Amino acid sequence: MAKTQADELAVVGKSLPKPDAMGKVSGQARFADDLMLPRMLFARILRSPLPHARIRQVDASRARAMPGVQAVLTGEDLPIKYGILPVSQDEEALCSEKVRYVGDPVAAVAATDEWIADAALEAIDVSFEALPSVMSIDEALAQPGEPIHPRGNVHKAVALEFGDTEEGLRSADHTREDVVFFEGNTHLPMEQHAAVAQYGQDGKLTVWSSTQTPHYVHRALGKVLELPMSRIRVIATPNGGGFGGKSDIFAHEIVAAKLAMVTGRPVKITLTREEVFYAHRGRHPVLMKVRTGFRRDGRITAMQFQSFLDGGGYGSYGVASTYYTGALQTATYAIPRYRFEGVRLFTNKPPCGPKRGHGTPQPRFALEVHLDKVADELGLDPVAIRRRNLVQPNSQTVNWLRITSCGLEACMDRVVADSRFLERRTAMPSGRGLGFAVSSYLSGAGTAIYWNDMPHSEVQVKVDRGGGVSVLCGAIDIGQGSDHILAAIVAEVLGVSLQDIQLTTADTDLTPIDLGSYSSRVTFMVGNAAIAAAQRVRQRLAEAAARMLHCESDELSFRGGQVGRRDHPGEAISFAQTVQAAEAGEGLISASGSYTPPKLAGPYKGSGVGPSPAYSFSAAVVEVECDPRTGEVRVPEVWIAHDIGRAINPVLVEGQVEGSVYMALGEALMEEQTFRIGVHKFPSMLEYKSPTTLEMPVVHTSLVESLDPEGPFGAKEAGQGPLLPVIPAIANAVYNALGVRIDEIPITPEKVLRALAQPSRRVGPKGVPRFAFPSPIQAARPPEWEGK
Amino acid sequence: MKVAVRLRVNGQDTELLVPPYKTVLEILREDLGLTGTKHGCELGECSTCGILVDGKPFLSCLALPLDLEGHEITTIEGLAEGSRPHPLQVTFAELGAAQCGYCTPSMILTAKALLDTDPHPSRAAIQQALAGVLCRCTGYLKIFEAVELAASRHG
Ligand code: FES
Ligand code: FES
Fold first, then answer.
1. Rounded Cα gap, residues A646 and A624, in angstroms
2. What is the percentage of chain A residues whose pLDDT exceeds 70?
3. Measured from the CB, is residue B63 less than 6 Å from ligand 1?
4. Hey, are the CB atoms on B75 and A27 less than 8 Å from each other?
5. Nearest-CA neighbor of B68 among B5, B17, B142?
6. Of the residues B48, B58, B107, B110, which should be mutated to test ligand 1's pocket, given the most ligand atoms within 8 Å of the CB?
7. Are B64 and B3 spatial neighbours (Cβ–Cβ below 8 Å)?
8. What is the tens place of the pLDDT at every residue in A650-664?
9. What residues in B contact A208, CB-CB < 8 Å?
10. Whose CA is nearest to atom 3 of ligand 2?
């Protein structure tokens, strides 16, 4: 962390316009589909109309003969399989033998315009042999016909246990079991995915793509196209929304590259909105069972958690998603004994993957409604039961997560006080309710997607004799403000203004690695790498300035474009003069900095998912207004507090929190990605209901600054965590309002009416399917939990 | 087959020879290089492709160029005065109302149409005016504030 005192910060902590703001408000920002290259061709992909089928034959001769068609590709042109995780290399850019969901790519055309390409798709004759399809968790387990993948429909089954949970449940005063379901939903970024590829006569390939993970795309292109990575350049364009939906490797990126290689001309592919729904990689539908033992005072003695994930047709991030459904329950509550069993099933639907909160919103929903129900049974209020179990700062969870800074209690206090939750919840007018929940999320995964010892983020800083500062980093701005984090941190350390910073980002030829804009890692990891790089540059500049100002280099301050003596404020030289002096002495002044997270994984298999160098915490109170005649639930007001560590730019952090509340609202009340015989029920923006301006509640956002000891200037994440408490808080509020339990997300009017009509006053799953989980890995507990 | 059309875009007359089925959205982006106009569905569902026609919000993905002959088209590129940004562009930047920035051109143009008829709109009027324009990033709140701030600066 920079030596600067908090009260001296000039850029960090200020709500300044981000560096890419003017480009975005003026229409000058160039998104992938905005790129137009000379001689460019347009490509389209033919996709499977069937959820599960063998491909007997693909005949593209009619398409190839059409005027304007420049190339047609089929499965045999791209035979090498790939996948985002090294353990799940199960996808083909164009399927050669089998299709596994409606929308699976089968062939591709490049033509002189999109209309010709579209017409050519219709001239490709594919003969399919339909196979029985698997559309649900139950069907996948029943294994009716040919399995979706050779090794069966069970993609991954895991089981971990920390301490004897059976014993913990036996010794409890009270136990409770709940079964809940969270339906899948999708990211729905406003920008449709797009990629442009160009292959030069020099044998070099360039791919521009709206991707959150240019580095992983780079690796996959090398593998599938059998090109050395040194001849491939991947440039991530600003993403018009990501939310996890652009963090996989997509067929259209590979297809565009291959078509550019075949034709020798630039090729662009832009997915239609319908294709975006099928590209998916979104929220897994998850069925969950949670069983917990409590002491009379509300303290947890043990917890057993089971999750069944409906994964769709391919692996994608699924192994990680599976572990994530069990990883963070312990990050908010001190659970002394914990067992997690998870299984991910293949189904004939578009693959699921990471969406904002990756694998944790579903179990967070389960856990937070479960706790409210237990609180009722024990005669405690929802706040009290959580207080009894709160995780403490500087502690270690039973599954070996290292908790350092923790503002959870402060977040709780804040929203409970501001909303007057405890006073008002028992006195709400009819149809109105208040609900409460808390959560935690990672500030970046502690391990990379592929095993390696290299840094997760790297930044180069180079200063120019005119006083300009160039900052290079592989990070891509997806709207979350990563450009601002980079620029603000370097500007702070070097004492220059944001306008003096030139950013070059997300270009594998020019910028050092950043692993990508996923897992809420960018502020933490890029920020730390940026501090390291800027401090090295500053040290060298300080030595040159010290010679001119006749003092020691550590007596200097860098501020307002000046380098001056701290003790004699009048004695200063400009930043540009300092650069010139340093450059005259030793040549170009540039330096790099890297960040590698500490090795935090616990001593058991499967410990790689969950550890993070720091955790954010959130708490929310939601007010609902329910109409018992229509079942409609409206949300007029939300109070949310988020432990951000430190807000590097408060207005941007608030934006992340408000955007998370918005997205949670959509997930909780209306959004669902569901299918009828493999066909998406709502593949359009009209029918896939998402909140508009009219549904957005008043949101009271509070930022809690716990100053993380390892975060850049103390910062932690904000992009995903604040989504988590809102969904269960809505469910708890609906219960408070109407006395009905909707144990199934989304909470639609139809479900509310059904619950109101039932004696159980509940809608939700009755149980979980029978499944023989592997016997759990019995992991040692950290010392502080032994004997508890 | 192509047809000749004459469009007035951002104060300039242009004559074009285009296929008759090409939408205004495609013509703006591909023939006129005005890529500030975005798209999210090309089916009239998201309003990302919003432009102003005679000062009123208009979905460019649903219109054919012949429909707009004789009308005044404004795109996001036409909003600034030279290099001086429109007040809404400034407040959107200041308040972080553009996250990914993809809905932003349409959001700003739609807000401008509102302010041109109602210089000091209520929050409810802003919500109503922007209701068709989807944004997945911001939760809309900073957008409302940016419109209000621009209105208040107007005096
Ligand atoms: S692009 Fe969606 S309404 Fe025009
Ligand atoms: S800012 Fe991203 S869609 Fe509105």
1. 31
2. 99
3. no
4. yes
5. B5
6. B48
7. no
8. 999 999 999 999 999
9. none
10. B135
Give the pLDDT band of residue A2 (cuts 50, 70, 90).
very low
Cα A280 to Cα B138: distance, rounded to the nearest angstrom: 21
* Nearest listed ligand to the Cα of residue B135: 2
CATH code at A32-131+192-238+246-279? 3.90.1170.50
**Ligand 2: does its nearest atom lie under 6 Å from the Cβ of B101?**
yes
Q: Which residues of B touch A26 (CB under 8 A)?
A: 36, 76-77, 79-80, 85, 89
Contact A273 B34 (CB under 8 A): no
Question: What's the average model confidence in pLDDT over A256-274?
Answer: 98
Q: Given this model, what pLDDT does residue B155 score?
A: 67
Q: pLDDT value at position A510? A: 98
Scored b (16 or more CB within 10 A) or e, A158-195 reads bbbbbbebeebbeebeebbebbbbbbbbbbbbbbbbbb
Cβ(B40) – ligand 1 distance below 6 Å: yes
**Nearest bound ligand to CA B104?**
2
Mean pLDDT of A32-44: 98
Average pLDDT, chain A: 97
The token duo for A492 is: 């702070």
Report percent pLDDT > 90 for chain A.
Answer: 97
Which positions in chain A touch B101 (Cβ < 8 Å)?
Answer: 20, 23-25, 29, 238, 240, 479
Does the pTM of the predicted model rise above 0.80?
A: yes
Whether B100 lines ligand 2, by a CB cut-off of 6 Å, is: yes
| Segment A287-309, tens digit of pLDDT | 999 999 999 999 999 999 999 99
> What's the pLDDT tens digit per position in A304-322?
999 999 999 999 999 999 9
Atom 3, ligand 1: residue with shortest CA distance: B44
Cβ-defined contact of B76 to A27 (cutoff 8 Å) = yes
User: Which residue segments constitute the domains of chain B, with CATH numbers given?
Assistant: 3-77 (3.10.20.30), 87-153 (1.10.150.120)
Using the beta-carbon criterion (under 8 Å), do B76 and A15 form an inter-chain contact? no
Name which CATH class applies to A6-29+454-595: alpha beta
A479 and B100: CB-CB below 8 Å?
Answer: yes
pLDDT at residue A788 in the model? 87
First to last CA, chain B: 52
Q: How far is B5 from chain A (nearest CA, A)?
A: 20
How far away, in angstroms, is A243 Cα from ligand 1 center? 20
Give the residue from A688, A726, A720, A658 showing the smallest Cα distance to A188.
A688
Per the CB < 8 Å rule, is B45 touching A240?
no
Q: Is pLDDT above 80 for A144?
A: no
User: What's the pLDDT tens digit per position in A465-477?
Assistant: 999 999 999 999 9
What distance lies between CA A675 and its chain's CA centroid?
Answer: 24
Every domain of chain A with CATH number 3.30.365.10 lies at 6-29+454-595, 159-185+282-446+602-779
The percent of residues above 90 in pLDDT, for chain B, comes to 97
Q: Which residues contact A101 (CB under 8 A, 6 or more apart)?
A: A48, A51, A52, A278, A312, A313, A348, A349, A350, A351, A678
CA A247 – CA A516 distance, rounded (Å): 8
- Give the pLDDT confidence score for residue B1 in this predicted structure: 85
Closest approach of B37 to chain A, Cα-based (Å): 7
Write phi, then psi, for A63 (nearest 5 degrees).
Answer: -65, -40
Domain A159-185+282-446+602-779 class in CATH? alpha beta
